[in-house]
Amino acid sequence: MKTMKPLFAFDIGNSNITAGVFFGERLLRRVNIPTARAENCGASLRNIGIKGAGDVVICSVVPAATRSFCRCLKLLSLFKPMVVGSNGVIVPLKNLYTRPKETGQDRLVNAYAAAKLFGVPLICVDLGTAVTFDAVSARGEYLGGMIFPGMGMQLRALSEGTALLPKVKLQAPSGLLGKRTQDGILNGVVRGTAAVCDGLCDGMKKQLGGKAVVIGTGGDIRFISRYTRVFDRIEPDLTLRGLRMVYEHYNKKTDLSNGEGMEDMEDIARP
Questions:
Q1: Which of 131, 164, 205, 258 has the most CB within a 10 Å radius?
Q2: 22 in the same domain as 43
Q3: Nearest to 41 by CA among 15, 65, 8, 5
Q4: Which of 57, 83, 109 finishes a domain?
Q5: Which of helix, strand or coil describes residue 93?
Q6: Is 59 within the bounds of a domain?
Q7: Same domain, residue pair 165 and 250
Q8: Which residue in 106, 126, 134, 264 is the catalytic one?
Q9: In the structure, what pLDDT confidence band is assigned to residue 78 with cuts at 50, 70 and 90?
Q10: Chain segment 25-72, per-residue pLDDT in tens
Q11: Is 198 a catalytic residue?
């Protein structure tokens, strides 16, 4: 009897490589590795049990880190990882971007997972190093969206781009009218980001017909959700779950040679 081995999913972002260990549909473990350590991540991979992996699936927004990470994997395992966006592996979601290859693979993975889990039409907001807003139509089509600086990036820009504003660590702001410079910065960045989420999602909802479900994900989603009520569902591990879904889609030998893969979306697209 063949022993089932776990699937390892890796989301390589600008700040962190988020690793998820799946046994079937169950996410057993979630670990962050700094992206800056992609070239020397062997010890971290051994610590999470990579040698016991049944397979590996990756998506990335940092090409150089992906190459370094894959070299580390090659030294520790005998199989080649599935890299979303490479070697013909595409997210099975019709992409209406003017130039589809420019779309971040994490955005497509998020949109696909959200559509499968929560239905369409939808808006997916990913709060990380950058904040991305992505829309999927009632027909299951990826429509595009918006990109906004994340809160950490905003805080760094204020400090590095001015003479007197201090470095401020991301934390809960005080009352709306800050009495100190630090309070003013935190209020502007945190409450400003929440207001952007509210305003942009309202506008996107109208364009989608007013009934879109709004899904929140990313490393800062639980923090910002205290300051906005726009999110219908919070799913911090959406990208990892989406990677598992993409892997399983290919494991079923679905033909994606036409570059669209829309047959897999028929069960989520509403009439």
A1: 131
A2: yes
A3: 65
A4: 83
A5: coil
A6: yes
A7: yes
A8: 106
A9: low
A10: 999 999 999 999 999 998 999 999 998 899 999 999 999 999 999 999
A11: no
